Amino acid sequence: MKNVETNESFNDNSKGSESTPNLWYRLLYVQVIIAIVLGVVVGHFWPSSASVLKGFGDGFIALVKMMIAPVIFISVTTAIAQMTNLRKMGRLTLKTFGYFLFFSSVALLLGMLVGNWIKPGEGLAITPTPTDLNQIKSYLEPGVGSDVSSFIMHIIPNTFLSSLTGSSLLQVLLVATLFGFALCFTRDKSMPVILFLESLSHPIFKLVEMLMKLAPIGAFGAMAFTVGKFGLVVLWNLIGLVLTFYLISIAFIVLILGLVCWYNQLSIFKLIRYLKDELFLVLATSSSESALPTLMMKLERLGCSKPVVGLVIPTGYSFNLDGTNIYLTLATLFIAQACNFPLSLEQQGLIFFVAMLSSKGAAGVSGSGFITLAATLTIVPSFPIYGMALLLGIDKFMSECRAMTNFMGNAVATLVVSHWDDQLDREAYDRTINGSLEC
Questions:
Q1: Could you tell me if 315 and 76 are in contact, meaning their C-beta atoms sit under 8 angstroms apart?
Q2: Number of Cβ within a 10 Å radius of residue 202
Q3: What is the CATH number of the domain that holds 89?
Q4: Is the pLDDT reported for residue 259 higher than 50?
């Protein structure tokens, strides 16, 4: 099977870095690690000046997000336009959403089971204060009135072009899918448009490659601001919940996703090593979106076909948020336990299904998990929502774990769906995944 090269310059650059492994300082993940350490030092010793550096982190994320809409539009549109078997495309879509539904359920259930077992909030006996209610008011407002109808209407953009200038991944995905099918049905007459979009992909992905060189600067600014604002001592506040969440997420990646990879003759540890640059970037920025464009390029280079990458990654960033799902059920039980509000099995079941719906569309933007949690908790009458104030101080650190788990979940999903649909080039996978270990 021939794997379509999306970005030759990216691949050539990557091969070049593999041929000079002794130049360690040129490796992106090394630069990001150094930037994170420097950010922690600056934030700890010069907290007042560190807040000024927030613009570096926000600016880098904004630059990357600027490229997400064109990357997704071009990737999805050209992938569908190249499809000659629409029935096969339908089967691929069913397999993808079946995978998403199953593992989203597993993630939600895992957070709920561990929360009931460890009981990280038990014994805190929190009572509300006016300050607590004011702190969470701004997070409750986005969730009020959210239902299936409003969710569907939010997917539909006002105009064709507004989807490319807005911030909704689902709107871009909808327009790209419809336009891709239109090109597919009129392929003979639309060939100049298809060729134009394929040619446009080269400068678009080259621009992404150029922007990624700024990742260490963004990581430095984001980490300096975080430590400068919250301080290192914040890690000791509610440390049991933070550790519990990290341990659950690691277990989900290593054990559950690891077993899925093993069953499909893949390696979760080699995949983590291959995506180390992106993982450190997600860690520093607390946003999986910051690594979305390069993830798509690397997965194609790893042997996944362009149609699979174009379908699974964009939809996965809205419908396959494993880290967010773990967080929703675990945080809900933590708040209930901390506020002495026992949840019945029926109420936990209701939260399970509502969280399954409310998490969709909460794409990898830093802090979106906290807003989604607020929307989910409103479903239970008399639930002590003021307890969310407990999580404000540590949400930044939990957001990092949510983003990394979401990122790995979608990377594994793409590989597994490619394998299931016989669209994984095994020779390219073995060559690339083993070659990355030499770096």
A1: no
A2: 15
A3: 1.10.3860.10
A4: yes
Over residues 149-169, the pLDDT tens digits come to 665 677 788 888 877 777 666
424 strand-pairing partners: 304
Determine what percent of the chain is predicted with pLDDT higher than 90. Answer: 12
pLDDT in tens, 302-312: 998 888 888 88
The pair of structure tokens assigned to 335 is: 């708040």
| Contacts of residue 349, Cβ cutoff 8 Å, sequence gap at least 6 | none
Query: 344, exposed or middle or buried, with CB in 10 Å at 0-12, 13-18, 19+?
Result: exposed
Closest alpha carbon to 79 in 183, 208, 188, 191: 183
- Using CA atoms in the order 85, 304, 280, 101, what is the torsion angle rounded to 10 degrees? 50
CA-derived radius of gyration, the chain: 22
pTM passes above 0.90: no
C-alpha–C-alpha distance, residues 376 and 140, integer Å: 10
Which two structure tokens, joined as six digits, stand for 424? 């994984």
Cα→Cα distances 227→369, 395, 413, 434, Å = 21, 13, 33, 37
Give the number of C-alpha atoms closer than 13 A to the C-alpha of residue 405, restricted to the C-beta side: 31
Per DSSP, the three-state class of 125 is: coil
Name the DSSP letter for residue 342: P
Residue 54: count of CB within 10 angstroms of its CB: 16
Residue 325 lies in a domain: yes
User: Among 348, 367, 369, 351, which residue's Cα sits nearest to residue 359?
Assistant: 369
Which range marks the domain in which residue 103 is found? 8-438
The answer to whether residue 371 is domain-embedded is yes
Q: How many domains does the chain have?
A: 1
Instruction: Inform me whether the pLDDT recorded for 15 exceeds 60.
Output: no
Residue type present at position 7 = N
153 within domain boundaries: yes
Please check whether residue 335 is in contact with residue 388, taking contact to mean a CB–CB distance below 8 angstroms.
yes
